[in-house]
Amino acid sequence: QNMGDEPLTNVSIALPPGLSLPDNLQALRLAIPSTIGPLARVVFNVSANVLGPFFSYYFSVLVSSNEADTVVPTVSFDVRVLTAQLRASPSSLSGNVVIGAQSLFSFQVTNLGLGDSGPLSLALPSVPYLSLGVASPLAPIPPGNSTLVWLSVSPPNGSTVGSISGQVYVSGQYVGLGVPFSFNIVSNATGNLTVVCQDEFTYTPERRPLVNATVSISSLDGSVHTTILSDENGQANFPNIPESFYTIVVQKLGHAPYSSTVKLDRGGRTVIAFLQIQTVSYRWTVRQTEVKEVYTFTVEATFVTQVPAPVVTVEPSVIDVAELELEVEALGSTTLTLYLTNHGLIMAEDSHVDLPQNHRFLRFLGPTVVGQILPNTTVAVQYNVVSVANTTRRDITVCFACIAGAAYYSYTCDGIQTRSVPLTFSNQGPCGLQCVDYGG
User: Fold this and answer.
1) H helix runs in 238-343, sequence order
2) In a 10 Å sphere around its CB, with 0-12 CB exposed, 13-18 middle and 19+ buried, how is residue 158 labelled?
3) d(Cα 20, Cα 1) in Å, to the nearest integer?
4) How many CA atoms lie within 13 A of 38 on its CB side?
5) pTM greater than 0.85
6) Which of 52, 114, 265, 377 could bridge to 82 as Cys pair (CB 3.0-4.6 Å)?
């Protein structure tokens, strides 16, 4: 560009003296207008014969005139082969495939690049009833052109309902793409699905069924989704529904929900859905005290007793971490006693307590296994609380996930049933959110 108010004359362009060009850059030609007007901009041309598919090269040229000093712009050669760019439409394949029938799916491969694609190979994952509907390799696709690829899915009779997924790979010398697919293998056969709803009362002498439970089923392919209530026999019947995998969800107020996935075939299936009675509910109350970062936690447990199951509660329901820390710091250790009470009508088995092990100052030492708790019986479990070796409360920084614990127990009713009782730890700082320095 001429930045002055006078024209530049006798403008010329040349290679620097002594510059040697590479062998794959031949017959270099340089051209520039001989005059550049005031404040004008011109374009100079560089052309050459290029050998070889890929290379980059940088060199300088000298531009001079009668009126101005020589300038040295840089020329860059970046040589690439014109290549294809493939795109599939649709970009993925999905659908339902019926057992015993053939289903065809297709996608179009378009070359959006500037070069010919060359022959394109097709590859499928190893699925017995998955095959190509076109010959491989595909003929080269010129720029701007397309070709259609067909896929055949033919699960024979006796195949299992479910799903298959993978990718169809299209690949050439310099290009390639993968087209994902996901097919649901479904059946025209039907069967009857019966869900029998039970809870602990079903196993008493009265054999009381769980009535008016909400039972929902949904098939793997999404074609079936329905909800009904269990009848006076505790049963929810779904007649003549397609053979498939079904997710079953059963809910009833005052019970823990039930969920499972089962396979239904033409012979039909009966599923036992056992819903544990929710024997204990908790209400947490948090009040801030006059001391900064110290709160009062209250947990109110509401439990039922006249049920054919163990009903275990733990006292104290709230464990003050700050209080334990102060006692351990002052005395070297302290005692924590937990009282586990079974308010139910049957024995709690395999009872055990898990106390946190990730506190950075406190360690809880004592029994983990409690064992059996008879009906209407309280068991006291004592723990020794000490400090972590070589630490004090004042020189640590609390920065960890919130500590938690629980008591667990089991009983036999339609198999082994397991329940848990949460333990609440209060005044442990804003754990998991930020680091709090207890020093000072």
Assistant:
1) 321-331
2) exposed
3) 27
4) 3
5) no
6) 114
